[in-house]
Design brief:
The chain has one domain (2-133): 3-Layer(aba) Sandwich (Cytidine Deaminase, domain 2), CATH 3.40.140.10. It is built from three helices and seven strands, in the order βαββαβαβββ. It has helices at 7-20, 56-69, 89-93; strands spanning 2-6, 26-32, 35-42, 72-80, 101-106, 114-121, 124-133. The chain is globular and about 35 Å long.
Length: 134
């Protein structure tokens, strides 16, 4: 599986992560045919640099907007303010949706953010390809 991420959405991810640092930022990504066309920044209710949880009302509003726009949720994203873009033990523990892509943006090197995507099978991360497009 490959997900296509526009440069504009990549820049929104980076901006959101830097704005929320040192806490994790989080949200949803949506689109059609594995092409991400919409970015949703949601509130990290935990306000933590090590984990996140989303506010259900914000999640429902985002899903409602997706339905209205005729798109589907393609990924759940969050940032790692100071660690690599890999699934942490906490991320794996909370990965309940096997068909969902989990996108992580790392700010471990703030001048060179790293974006990676994973699906989870049997509590093991499987990296998927993310293509950043113009």
């Amino acid at each position: 599986m490959t997900l296509s991420v526009s440069e504009e959405i990549y820049n929104q991810l980076v901006f959101a992560a830097k704005t929320e640092a040192p806490n994790e930022a989080c949200g949803l990504l949506a689109g059609i045919d594995n092409k991400i066309t919409r970015f949703y920044k949601l509130t990290n209710a935990d306000a933590s640099p090590e984990h996140f949880s989303m506010i259900p009302a914000e999640q429902f509003a985002a899903v409602k907007d997706m339905r209205k726009a005729g798109i589907q949720m393609l990924a759940i994203w969050h940032s790692h303010p100071s660690t690599p873009a890999r699934m942490s033990d906490e991320d794996l523990k909370l990965a309940f949706m096997p068909d969902t892509v989990y996108v992580i943006l790392s700010l471990a090197k703030p001048d060179a953010p790293s974006l990676r995507g994973y699906q989870v099978a049997d509590k093991r991360p499987i990296e998927i390809e993310l293509n950043i497009t113009k």
